[in-house]
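Just scan this pair:

***
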Amino acid sequence: MATKQGKKDNRLSDKEAMHLAEITDVSPQQAKDLAEKHGKAKAEKEAKNFKAEG
């Protein structure tokens, strides 16, 4: 079976998503979606931008 080498796992756990949701005021699902799209390292910044735009 082939594996995805060099690809980081950007998924957030439920606990991580809840924490990000609490500090940025986005929903846990939005936090997970943002982390998958932008990576865990940029998820908080993107969540703050997402909420400011919305």
Remarks:
- DSSP finds three helices and no strands in the chain.
- Helices lie at 14-24, 28-38, 40-53.
- The mean pLDDT is 87.
